[in-house]
Amino acid sequence: LLVFWQSGSSFHVFDQGQFAKEVLPKYFKHSNMASFVRQLNMYGFRKVVHIEQGGLVKPEKDDTEFQHPYFIRGQEHLLENIKRKVTSVSSIKNEDIKVRQDSVSKLLTDIQLMKGKQESMDSKLIAMK
């Protein structure tokens, strides 16, 4: 079995190699598991990392689990809420840009002040020597 429902709120891919070779080409124009995972991420699916795995240790089994808040067994009406994420420059508000510009300006001012203090300390140190 390649895909398995876990409590109806996630799905597993138990053998990624077999899944990529046999299942992906039936539904996609590729058989690349990394591309499939990238697509899942674009639609808001996330890989489930269990505490015992620690997130850093690669699991011993070739078992990957994915979940999405609107991907629930028996709740087909929720599927329409699964949409591709849109990240475009036009979605950034002018207010956000203004805040960022102000933050950058303050940072540059602070750096100039620190630079001036550093130069002053350097010259005092030279005079003390």
TrEMBL record:
One of its GO terms (molecular function) is core promoter sequence-specific DNA binding. Pfam families: HSF_DNA-bind. Residues 24-48 form the HSF-type DNA-binding domain. It is found in: Nucleus. It comes from the Eukaryota. SUPFAM superfamilies: Winged helix' DNA-binding domain. GO terms for cellular component: chromatin; cytoplasm; nucleus. The keyword 4Fe-4S does not apply. This is HSF1 protein. The keyword Nucleus applies. Keywords: Activator, DNA-binding, Nucleus, Stress response, Transcription, Transcription regulation. InterPro entries: HSF_DNA-bd, WH-like_DNA-bd_sf, WH_DNA-bd_sf. Belongs to the HSF family.
